[in-house]
Amino acid sequence: MAPLLAGTEKLMLTGRLRDDDATKAKAGMDFGGIVDRRPAAVVEPCDADDIAEIVRFATDRGIRVSARGRGHSTHGQSLVDGGIVIDMSALAAVHRVELGYAVVDAGATWRTVLEATLPRGLTPPVLTDFLDLSVGGTLSLGGIGGTSHRYGAQTDNVIALEVVTGAGERLTCSRASNAELFRAVLAGLGQCAIVTQATVALVPAPTHVRRRIVAYPDAVSLNAAQRTLVEDRRCDYVEGLIVQDGQGGWLHNLEAVSFAADADVVVGDGVVLETMTMSYFDFVNRLGDEETFLSGLMHKVQPRPWCTVYVPGDDVDAVVDASLARPQSEVGSLGMFLVYPIPRSALSTPLLRVPDDETMFQFSVFRYAEPADAAAVKSMLAANRDMYAQAQAVGGTLYPFASVVLDRDGWEAHWGNQWEMLRSAKTVYDPKGVLGSGQGIF
Ligand SMILES: Cc1cc2nc3c(=O)[nH]c(=O)nc-3n(C[C@H](O)[C@H](O)[C@H](O)COP(=O)(O)OP(=O)(O)OC[C@H]3O[C@@H](n4cnc5c(N)ncnc54)[C@H](O)[C@@H]3O)c2cc1C
């Protein structure tokens, strides 16, 4: 046992504490494959009491703790060097599904949630493009998807939370009770508490959807078309994908979906490449599960220095064009971009930092470097910094699962007028500063 963890034999855990090399190596890496931070141990909790016990143990000794959902951040956000990782995938049950809500463990994936709600004809209103992300992980970030133009972020659709604070205290919170804690946890990057359970809103699920893929000549017309679709409320789901054409250029494709299976989305002057009816589950699961996603699209290639920014609608064309004009080697041969609009009014989570513009766009880049190509990783990380700087220069913000490192000033700028709120909540709920060190904020 590492000296740091002397005394763990006295812990009253129902779950397991593991410190074998294989477990620590796995918990030391994330989806990005860039940062390696080995923990001293990994805890697989059986329940929230286990989490409270381990957090109190760590707080007493000044050991840092990190909740790991599915480890799908890209730059070490869920990792902790020499500390304790809490593997939230061990707490992954769906406890109740009622007409308008479900009570789920934070380590459950959105796939698990959906599998429990769909037989009742219900769905979370916003799903991430990839379903195998944890509820706690995306609620710590925001959780944005193709229905966000209508329903906001996943964090906007949370009714209540059960958490363990950095002081090891088990608390519940909602808009009406412990509201300050609720605000500090949603999109709060795990700084004040570990979410153990969430009550998330549900809406009726369509059985089938009508999906169209529509081509546009450039990013400007793609963005204009998406904006019109959203403003006119002409579709239920919208995302724009910019992919390589194999000849050094780009294809600009709109994915516009109606949740009424017999109603095609009217898309204006784009060229319709494909129209299909599919089941709602097949649609939201179109990237497949972890294994299909990684092998099917050859996404096994790591490192993956991904980046997402939010850009004011008036400036999105310039920011997107600046990225598209750069060498394709900066995204790698599998690389692509995602861009889609979200009205500001749909979002209400204070710590989800987005521009103030009435319509803003999410803009993501998925970069893939060859494993041994350190120079490529360096240039991709530099490209991410430039992308964020360009967004920031026009009032844009960062989605902090990205491979972009911020210093203290950078974080303060990121949180803007919410910085004092987060800082003061941190003092109250995680006074010893043991939680969320992978983000490098405090
Ligand atoms: C393939 C892929 C597709 C994606 N698609 C989308 C998308 O469509 N929309 C979108 O918004 N994002 C998307 N993301 C980004 C995603 O939201 C983040 O990577 C998120 O962090 C992943 O969740 P996770 O469970 O893996 O969290 P982790 O990476 O494990 O954790 C993320 C952060 O949250 C903290 N955390 C984790 N669990 C808890 C908890 N229970 N309580 C408190 N803090 C916790 C961690 O310590 C860490 O700081 C995607 C990422 C990938 C890799």
TrEMBL record:
Annotated keywords: FAD, Flavoprotein, Oxidoreductase
Listed Pfam families: Cytokin-bind, FAD_binding_4
Entry keyword annotation includes Isomerase: no
Domain FAD-binding PCMH-type: 35-205
GO biological process, one term: cytokinin metabolic process
Oxidoreductase listed as a keyword: yes
Molecular function terms, GO-annotated: cytokinin dehydrogenase activity; FAD binding
Cofactor or coenzyme needed: FAD
Gene3D superfamilies named in the record: 3.30.465.10, FAD-linked oxidases, C-terminal domain, Uridine Diphospho-n-acetylenolpyruvylglucosamine Reductase, domain 2
Residues forming coiled coils: none
Record-linked InterPro entries: Cytok_DH_C_sf (IPR016170), Cytokinin_DH_FAD/cytokin-bd (IPR015345), FAD-bd_PCMH (IPR016166), FAD-bd_PCMH-like_sf (IPR036318), FAD-bd_PCMH_sub1 (IPR016167), FAD-bd_PCMH_sub2 (IPR016169), FAD-linked_Oxase-like_C (IPR016164), FAD-linked_Oxidoreductases_BP (IPR050432)
Cited PANTHER family: CYTOKININ DEHYDROGENASE 6, GULONOLACTONE OXIDASE
Family stated for the protein in its record: Belongs to the oxygen-dependent FAD-linked oxidoreductase family.
Protein name: FAD/FMN-containing dehydrogenase
Species per Swiss-Prot/TrEMBL record: Kutzneria buriramensis
